[in-house]
Write a structure and sequence with these properties.
By secondary structure, this protein is an alpha/beta fold. The strands form two sheets. It has a five-stranded parallel sheet with strand order 2-1-3-6-7, with helices on both faces. A two-stranded antiparallel ribbon has the order 4-5. The termini are close together. It has one domain: Flavodoxin domain (Rossmann fold, 3-Layer(aba) Sandwich), CATH 3.40.50. GO terms for molecular function: electron transfer activity; FMN binding; oxidoreductase activity, acting on NAD(P)H as acceptor; oxidoreductase activity, acting on NAD(P)H, quinone or similar compound as acceptor.
Length: 207
Amino acid sequence: MKLLEVQSSVRLEKSISRALSHEFIQAWQKYNPSAQHKQQDVGINPPAHPTELWTTANYTSPATRTLEMEATLVDSEQLIEELLWADRLLLGVPMYNFSIPSTLKVYLDNIVRVNRTFTFDSTSFRFAGLARDKKALVITPSAGNFAPHTPLGSMNFCQTYLQSILKFIGIEDIEIVTVPNQFMPDDIRQPEIERARTKLLDLAATW
């Protein structure tokens, strides 16, 4: 079993997504003692944004790319190989302004690439994901309660985007553990953390 952990919080201390991810991985490794684990910390070390050259290289056949094109895609290729290596994908994703952190968006822009993590048939206009046979777990704290059918539910672009983009590249088995109300007083926020922790520790036995 191979686990890729992707952290996107810009905070190291007091990061709920990082802390819960760490606890989950420790518990999961007890059930999978021979598992391999890699961490990609895009919150602290985000990859570079795609550029015009990057985009041109991406849509140029590998056989006809220049050395400059190949060089601009090196980091993206490494991130994709890392993703394809993994059987399990753990994403620590705090909600920032109703969506995902910009650090995670640039990571996704680097790994969602035609003929690498998805294919497109220009005749039938159909897409197919290439990162199949994986499970994803998303741990997503938020300031308030953004659950469906709540007043803020329609503003939850974090969860809907992640589900869409992961399925687009072929990852259909997605578990999302929310940690709402993190800007509320401790008597409200702490029980939410405990509920998420309990769910994650239970999940560690079967994920």
